[in-house]
Design brief:
The protein has three domains: 165 residues, 3-Layer(aba) Sandwich (Lysozyme-like); 59 residues, no CATH class; 86 residues, no CATH class. 43% of the residues lie in helices and 8% in strands. It is built from 14 helices and eight strands.
Length: 322
């Protein structure tokens, strides 16, 4: 099993299983949740205490790093089943927060790398279904995370079509109207839109395909006070814990996702974070997680000691970001 000739930098992580126990049949896209160079990403995956890795990483400059050889399974997607079958790719963000945009150089290299992976591993097409049954998958399908962010999520159908076209194969599943569309009920898709899964504007239209109009109508109904058809009762405490785990993003994205429940949920979030008795009742879990990734809080017992009662929440967010 070979590795990509597109690699510019190599630093092999100890966080892997060697060899993988399944042939490669999938590609899984992640985002770095930061504008990391391929060298910095390699530093992140280098300590065994990190317990995370990916096969490849792409910087905003379009350079490619390799951290786990393709013959081995990376620890990337919170799913051994997926990671034994997938080549996993971390992509840097040139916008922090919001849609988590990636540069054109990174996007173009992602396309090129996916084509190369498919060709070398006998994959005749790359198929996006919006679920784990496709050959193109994402981290959020296996864990409570927003990875790879709205921008990349909104372009997954496009990625699959572009790669498949370059491979000379047939395009993936599509509706009678000809544009790729995810499966699921209108209510389910609307809730996923509100959670930020399909991005905004043209990215959302492309991701939803022929189902855009009906799904957007349901989104509008929910956000205008109609409520979610799939959630007749609201558990404020659970929603607050999901916020702390990073499920609803931050700032305006969180407000939009929570809608009329925002004030109550945010108040409960503040209560939960303040209940620790520490001096950081208003702690920004996301900011602390990014500081951890930078190395500001060390590893292992040192990190636990310095984060105190916030350790579990911060470490959970770190795991989501990576």
């Amino acid at each position: 099993m070979s590795n990509s000739p597109l690699v510019n930098y190599t630093r092999i992580s100890p966080n892997r299983n060697s060899p993988r126990n399944q042939p490669i049949s999938k590609i899984t896209v992640h985002h770095m949740a930061g504008n990391l160079s391929v060298e910095t990403c390699g530093n992140v995956f280098a300590p065994s205490s990190r317990q995370a890795s990916s096969n490849y990483g792409i910087g905003s400059d379009g350079r490619v790093g390799m951290y786990v050889e393709e013959k081995d399974r990376s620890w990337a997607s919170s799913s051994a089943w997926n990671d034994h079958r997938a080549v996993t790719i971390e992509v840097a963000n040139d916008q922090i927060g919001g849609n988590w945009h990636v540069s054109d150089a990174a996007w173009n290299k992602l396309v090129e790398l996916c084509v190369d992976i498919c060709r070398r591993n006998g994959m005749k097409s790359l198929v996006w279904t919006g679920g784990t049954d496709g050959s193109l998958t994402c981290h959020y399908m296996y864990a409570s995370t927003n990875c790879p962010g709205p921008y990349l999520k909104g372009r997954m159908a496009e990625l699959a079509r572009t790669v498949t076209a370059r491979l000379g194969g047939a395009s993936g599943p599509s509706t009678s109207g000809g544009s790729s569309a995810p499966s699921g009920s209108v209510a389910d898709l609307a809730n996923r839109v509100i959670a930020g899964e399909f991005g905004n504007g043209d990215a959302r239209k492309a991701a939803l395909g022929d189902r855009y109009a009906e799904v957007q109508a349901e989104v509008n109904r929910i956000l205008n006070g109609g409520g979610s058809t799939s959630s007749p009762s609201v558990d404020i405490d659970q929603m607050a814990r999901d916020v702390i785990a990073g499920k609803y993003g931050n700032g305006d994205a969180r407000k939009k996702a929570l809608g009329s429940n925002y004030a109550a949920v945010q108040a409960r979030v503040n209560e939960l974070l303040g209940a620790s008795g520490g001096s950081s009742g208003g702690a920004d879990i996301d900011a602390l997680a990014r500081a951890v990734i930078r190395g500001d809080y060390g590893n292992g017992e040192e990190r636990k000691r310095r984060l105190g009662s916030l350790y579990d929440a911060v470490q959970a967010r770190v795991n989501q970001l990576l």
